[in-house]
Amino acid sequence: MDVYFIRHGQTNWNLESRIQGNVDIPLNATGICQGKIVAEKLKHIRADLFFCSPLSRAKQTANLINEYQHLPIRIDSNITERSFGDLEGVTDLSKFSCNLSILLDTGINFSDYHIEPIKHLLERAKEFIHMLQTDYSNYHTIFVVTHVGVIQAIDYFLKHGKETSIPLLSVDNAGYLKYQL
């Protein structure tokens, strides 16, 4: 099966380089345009199934894409963004005793500042992929609208499971990666 992992469109917090995590920030005008552009790019691909994070920025993007697909959108909490606890809304990590590379190290069960441990995010990614492979193996094309952290965790799980940190995979707002499961 082909699975398209699509990142939500831009929010004001993306524009301001704020850590969003689980804060439910809607798309801004640019994000809505980006959602329409990715919908246009993907309109010729017929999806059989559509999943989405419960956060509004992902749901707004999914709804724009779904204008061409006309599918029920299944909300799945396993693909919501990682909670960054006290760091949500922050633009400058230098005030805290952590940095981005530490936050992505799979050997550290990071829970300072109420951050969701990376191992929990990886477990959610693993559960989601396992669910697709077992419960939906007869589907050909699946769209999943989610967040960059989830896409990084999925990429880690599918490609780099033996490494010690999640790769700093860059996915633009309303960008997507295609995986074959």
Give descriptors for this structure:
6 helices; Rossmann fold; globular; 181 residues; single chain; alpha/beta
Description:
With 181 residues, the chain is an alpha/beta fold. It has a single domain, classed as Phosphoglycerate mutase-like (Rossmann fold, 3-Layer(aba) Sandwich), CATH 3.40.50. 36% of the residues lie in helices and 13% in strands. It contains 6 helices and 5 strands, in the order βααβαβααβαβ. A 5-stranded mixed β-sheet has the order 3-2-4-1-5. Helix 2 packs parallel to helix 3 (56-69) and helix 5 (118-135) packs across helix 6 (148-159). The longest helix has 18 residues, at 118-135. It is globular, with a radius of gyration of 16 Å.
Instruction: Kindly report the spatial arrangement of strands forming the biggest sheet.
Output: 3-2-4-1-5
- Kindly estimate the percentage of residues that lie in beta strands according to DSSP: 5-15%
Q: What's the gyration radius in Å? A: 16 Å
Q: Look at the helices and sheets and give the structural class.
A: alpha/beta
Distance between termini?
Answer: 5 Å
Q: How would you briefly describe this protein structure?
A:
The protein has helices at 12-15, 29-42, 56-69, 100-103, 118-135, 148-159, and strands spanning 2-7, 49-52, 73-75, 141-146, 176-180. With 181 residues, it is an alpha/beta fold.
Layout of secondary structure:
Layout: E1 2-7, H1 12-15, H2 29-42, E2 49-52, H3 56-69, E3 73-75, H4 100-103, H5 118-135, E4 141-146, H6 148-159, E5 176-180
Parallel strand pairs: 1-4, 2-3, 2-4
Antiparallel strand pairs: 1-5
Helix pairs in contact: 2-3, 5-6
